[in-house]
Amino acid sequence: MPTTTRTTVIARSRARALVLSAGLVAGLVALPCVVGRRVEASTSVPAAAVVCPGPTYTVLSGDYWIRIATKNGVTLAAVLAANHAVATTVIHPGQIVCLPASAVTTTAAVPTTVNAPGPVVILPGGVLPIKQFPVQGLCWFSDSWGAPRSGGRRHEGVDLITKMGQKIYAVDDGVLTKRYIDAPGSLSGNGWRLTRADGTYFFYAHLSAFADGLMVGSPVVAGQIIGLVGMTGAAGTPHLHFEVHPGGGAPINPTPTVTAVNGCKITAIPAQPAAVAPVPTTTVAPATTIPATTIPATTTTTVASLPPLAPTANSRWTFIAPQTVLDTNGAPMTAGAVRTVAITGARGSLAGVPAVLVRLVARSSMMSGHLKLYACGAAVPEASALNYVPDRVNATVLPVPTGPAGVCVAASSSVDVRIEVLAYASSTGVGLQPMDSNRALDTRLATPLAAGAPITLPTTRLGVPASATAVTVSVTLLTPTAPGSISVGPCGGTPWTLAYGSAPSQMIGGVVRVNGAGLCLSSTTTVHVVVDVTGVWVGAQPLVALPAMRLFDSRLSEAISSTDRRVPLTLPAGTTRAQLSIVVIGSPSSGAVYAWNCNRPRPVASVASSIGPPTSVTVTMDVTGGAICLASSRNVQVVIDVFAVG
């Protein structure tokens, strides 16, 4: 049977060209899904009288042109051309529209073995009864029905966040009536449509793989494995996007339906039909139990290949003038693309260095996504280096090992990428010392940072010695009056300048140079600014860059709340400090996250804050004792990745 690709096209206006949105969402993060509903604006332009030479389609309630195109595996442009229509031409239920000759209609794909439709039962509270939760635990989900998506669309599914490769189940007995294949321009990536006897269908998206032996027309039973969790299409982290279409019509909020059979804590795989060859499985270890006198159980990732701490040779950091090694600048990386970045200076001065400290910036994205950064030739890490969101500043600074060919960067969706080298690992230079999060600036206590009015934070206010070379710092931008740019850097020196959007909460996390005069900030528009310092680059304490590794993901257990929570970290023996990436997946209102060594009191200053989409921030942490503590002002999900230890 033929396969089709689910794509979407955003109608920018009647006069503008159609733009294909492309892209690949735990991690992270994020978070994570853009498959959604778009209600077209009405117009007085009637559909021209058309005699269909090929396949036809009967318009259902809730249909619009792009939905008809994706249902039938063709482009919007092809459907419009077949009907001599434009994207805003009105259609109505019962109307017959023409399909291109290449279309494979849903009706044609459903085999005759499907029973005659019966009545669709929806229980109080919007629950459509199903027999099986759609994904193997451990997992996490929340009600994101109707959340805004790019192009004026709305989210019409539920995102079940879990690890890559977890099993995906048929939620009821039925027939697989459509398969979606990941390709450039696909939002759903790999996916299935499962139709049951009453005409109701369930849409699954972002699969990493399909179960062996299944094809369009295959009958399945509830609990049967039909694929594996992935992040194909427009996904920023591994998850399953799941939709419910009663009677084959418009979708309903699926959250009450999956809540009624919530299996997020169930890791056991249901018994499979005898004729079905089992899909290779990966056992998910149960959560590590913390003594009853402390806090709830957590789950950590055990990494057996963690190297021991290296000696001090090549584990200090020599800072240099920022050196641009990649800038796509209008020729963005595409979804799934990997770029090799040579780490050599103008005269080969950086050739052969074991690791570099890089400034990573994502710009001009049309959808949320993430970047991964790793030594070329090494395995692609599970951990992402930066999660990015449209209309926000998206930047970080982190250490990364180098390979013989340099550093590789991978993008999950179309995005411009800029990489600059700030320092390299050497036998001389400076080390890194963690410090309790110190709030050096909070303009909300007085007046916002005015446009064009710089502010100086002396080293005493930063809480660092005058000899410091750099600081690990989080800069939070709140309620900007308009999009603008922020400059952060050593007073009198060359600052780091970044454009920011109009979103009410945005964050920059990374390493910034300072000098004896301190740190200076300025903005082109008025904005509130919060500055928190978590580390100082000074002295000789070594820091060894590691391949990025995931240490903790609260989505596999429970959200971080206002209650202090101890999080064990699997790190090399002897580790006392670490350079971590903390990703916050926020609530609808702002949530501030606190992170500290459990041997000391909770600090006043937070390390990160987020509203809704994932926010990445790089922090320096004291990890003496092999654990840190987390708390948040709102219930949020937190992911922790490690990039360097000392």
UniProtKB/TrEMBL annotation:
<dbReference type="InterPro" id="IPR016047">
    <property type="entry name" value="M23ase_b-sheet_dom"/>
</dbReference>
<dbReference type="InterPro" id="IPR011055">
    <property type="entry name" value="Dup_hybrid_motif"/>
</dbReference>
<dbReference type="Pfam" id="PF01551">
    <property type="entry name" value="Peptidase_M23"/>
</dbReference>
<protein>
    <submittedName>
        <fullName>Unannotated protein</fullName>
    </submittedName>
</protein>
<dbReference type="Pfam" id="PF01476">
    <property type="entry name" value="LysM"/>
</dbReference>
<feature type="domain" description="LysM">
    <location>
        <begin position="55"/>
        <end position="99"/>
    </location>
</feature>
<dbReference type="GO" id="GO:0004222">
    <property type="term" value="F:metalloendopeptidase activity"/>
</dbReference>
<dbReference type="InterPro" id="IPR018392">
    <property type="entry name" value="LysM"/>
</dbReference>
<dbReference type="InterPro" id="IPR050570">
    <property type="entry name" value="Cell_wall_metabolism_enzyme"/>
</dbReference>
<dbReference type="InterPro" id="IPR036779">
    <property type="entry name" value="LysM_dom_sf"/>
</dbReference>
